[in-house]
Design goal:
Radius of gyration: 25 Å
Distance between the termini: 40 Å
Number of helices: 12
Structural class: alpha/beta
Number of strands: 35
Oligomer: single chain
Strand content: 25-35%
Length: 546
């Protein structure tokens, strides 16, 4: 069944399997296309922008993802988790004459929120959305890491710097979409590779340089085989004779990619999937960056989820969830930051709770509506009436409306995946924030030595200026130690711009209808038709490569 998106007017399809899921979850068909639904969920996630402000409970100066213009109280993380306040103090009665979203706006503007969301972590004050991590700095979406800096969606990794979507890896630098890698640098879409630089779409390779599409190889340079001694001599010669080895490698990689055979998606051990960067997945459709997932559709950045639609940015476990961001639990609908909970609807920043509706900031609660405590019998009587009220106003099943987001559009991850101009953003009725105010350094300039051996410890006391954005940035001691240990130059771009450049290396989250360039089987792929690579279905790819 085809429908027209109420937001962008594009046509999208509701499949029979979708209808079964929506019926099971007791939600209507979506009214927006998958892309617009993703964009709306991402409007609620500010990963990268941190601000100095005061804790509204103690007056202490803190680091926060909420700027000073937030309409609600912001508490330092440990104060928010303390017993010094109770979210039930902000309860409100149900108003049966008002739409539910209008009532949610009231409670969203008064309940305190945690300044940053880090849990079971140590020395990660300058991270956000960090869990079970230690000694990390400016890693956003940081899960199970140690000694990592400057990254986004870095999970279960150690000593990885400037990485994007890296999983179970160590000692990596400037890597994008790499899984189970060690001592890998300047590489993209690699699995189980080590002691190598400038690799693209390689698997099981070690001691390789500037290679594309290799599988289980060693001692290759620009896809040419060498002996161990020849390899070491040639690498030394290349680095001695080329002042800009990175530029040379990128030029050679581009040439090699023109002749590369690629599988229609990145990933392994998958069955019946469409999307990209999928690992150990089954029955997954139009989803991206999923690991160990089954029966999932229109999702992104999940690990070990089952029977979920339209969910983003979450670690296990979760089952039977719909239209959610960063959730753990069972039977969750249109929730944000709800962890270890079940049967929760339209809740935000709630933990270890169950059977709650439209609530914010709850911990270890049950049978609450708009932060008001009810008995089990009262709750079970009121919940169906609230759902009917939402259905009457075409709210039920929709995600939280954009005007409830505490962030301006260009503060959010939506801006990275769905870039809009200020005029376009304001035209949609969404907020825009001046992000450059006070961000430019007017002091003396510091000349960065090109060779890391010439860099003194004093650089950690200096303010550097990004060559592209002109914004200031710093080098921290553990970062300098990493560069020295790996013989890497000091970056001339600020962390934000380095992240933007890494984002450009990823295939877009868009599926094109194409045919396998060998057997002509129909495929859906993130490789655009104009791309130079030869795109094969999985069967033809395996036959060609192995």
């Amino acid at each position: 069944m085809n429908k027209t998106c109420r937001n962008c007017t594009s046509s999208f399809e509701i499949f029979a399997e979708d209808r079964i899921f929506y019926t099971t979850m007791n939600v209507p068909d979506p009214t927006m296309c998958p892309d617009c639904r993703r964009q709306q969920r991402q409007l609620f996630r500010n990963f990268f922008n941190l601000y100095h402000r005061k804790c509204d409970m103690t007056g202490k100066q803190i680091i926060s993802m909420y700027d000073t213009d937030a309409t609600f109280p912001v508490y330092e993380m440990h104060e928010w988790w303390s017993d010094k306040w109770d979210a039930l103090e902000y309860s409100q009665d149900i108003d049966w004459e008002k739409p539910v979203f209008e009532q949610l706006k009231t409670i969203h503007q008064k309940v305190p929120r945690a300044a940053i969301m880090n849990f079971q972590s140590e020395n990660t004050d300058y991270c956000n959305m960090s869990g079970k991590s230690k000694n990390c700095y400016l890693v956003f979406g940081c899960v199970g890491n140690e000694d990592c800096c400057y990254g986004h969606i870095v999970w279960q990794s150690r000593r990885c710097f400037d990485c994007l979507y890296v999983y179970k890896s160590e000692e990596c630098y400037e890597c994008v979409d790499c899984v189970q890698c060690y001592n890998l640098k300047f590489s993209n879409s690699c699995d189980n590779c080590s002691d190598s630089e400038y690799l693209i779409n390689c698997a099981g390779c070690r001691n390789c340089f500037g290679c594309v599409g290799l599988k289980n190889q060693e001692y290759y340079i620009f896809n040419k085989k060498y002996s161990k001694i020849e390899y070491e001599q040639e690498i030394k010669r290349l680095k001695n004779e080329n002042s800009d080895i990175k530029k040379l490698a990128q030029e050679k990689l581009k040439e090699l990619q023109n002749h590369e055979i690629v599988k229609y998606f990145h990933g392994f051990n998958c069955e019946d999937v469409t999307g990209d960067y999928l690992y150990n997945c089954k029955n997954v459709l139009d989803s991206y960056d999923l690991k160990n997932c089954e029966n999932c559709r229109y999702c992104a950045t999940l690990d070990s989820f089952t029977n979920v639609y339209d969910c983003n940015f979450a670690t296990p476990p979760a089952e039977w969830c719909y239209n959610c961001v960063t959730v753990q639990g069972y039977q969750l609908i249109s929730c944000h930051l709800v962890q270890n909970s079940s049967e929760m609807y339209y809740c935000d920043q709630c933990y270890n709770s169950k059977n709650c509706f439209g609530s914010l900031g709850l911990k270890n609660k049950q049978y609450c509506i708009f932060n008001k405590q009810y008995t089990k019998e009262e709750y079970e009587m009121l919940l169906p009436k609230l759902i009917e009220l939402m259905k009457k106003n075409n709210e039920w099943g929709e995600f939280l409306p954009p005007y409830l987001s505490p962030f301006a559009y260009n503060e959010t991850i939506a801006y990275k995946y769905f870039p809009l101009t200020q005029e376009e953003t304001l035209g949609k009725g969404w907020r825009w924030k001046d992000m450059n105010e006070g961000k430019f350094y007017k002091g003396p300039q510091y000349d960065i030595p090109e060779n890391i051996k010439d860099v003194s410890d004093d650089i950690c006391k200096q303010v550097l200026t990004c060559e592209f954005t002109k914004k200031p940035y710093k080098i921290i001691p553990q970062e300098l130690a990493f560069y020295r240990n790996h013989d890497l130059p000091i970056p001339h771009l600020c962390p934000d711009e380095r992240h933007n450049n890494r984002m450009k290396l990823r295939n877009p989250r868009h599926l094109w209808d194409r045919t396998c360039m060998k057997c002509k089987k129909n495929i859906k792929t993130t490789y655009a038709p104009e791309r130079p690579e030869t795109v094969y279905c999985e069967k033809c790819f395996l036959e060609a490569i192995y």
